[in-house]
Design brief:
The structure is a single chain. This protein is mostly helical. It has one domain. It is built from four helices and no strands. Helix 1 packs antiparallel against helix 4. The protein is globular. It starts with 10 loop residues before the first helix and ends in a 24-residue tail after the last helix. This is NADP-dependent oxidoreductase domain-containing protein. InterPro entries: AKR_Detox_Biosynth, NAD(P)_OxRdtase_dom_sf, NADP_OxRdtase_dom. Pfam families: Aldo_ket_red. It comes from Stenotrophobium rhamnosiphilum.
Length: 106
């Protein structure tokens, strides 16, 4: 298990998600961070993201997440790889459309 001050996350889960992001990154000729940031930006409940670049090069790399979109299939692949049962009290809200809006753009 990996933990660095946040919630404990199983290594198997982390590797499953990273493997999916890496495969999509190869498909779209982008970096793993660019795919991850683009994926986040396409979430219906995310209005913006804050990036913490350590230097100008990393900042410029992160900007490569803009100006393009993952396909529905790629988003579905990443969503499937990252899907897990939410913790209480969120598990019971998962089927309520008004609390968990589905993506409306692509």
């Amino acid at each position: 298990m990996s933990a660095t001050g946040g919630p404990i996350v199983e290594d198997e889960y982390l590797y499953k998600v990273i493997d999916a992001i890496e495969q999509v990154a190869l498909d779209v000729n982008k970096t793993v961070p660019q795919v991850a940031l683009n994926w986040l930006l396409q979430r219906p409940t995310v209005s913006n993201i804050v990036i913490g670049a350590r230097n100008e090069e990393q900042f410029r790399q992160n900007l490569g997440a803009l100006g393009w979109n993952l396909t529905k299939e790629q988003v579905a692949r990443l969503d499937a790889a990252s899907q897990q049962r939410p913790i209480y009290p969120y598990w019971h809200q998962r089927d309520f459309e008004e609390r968990n809006p589905k993506p409306t753009h692509w």
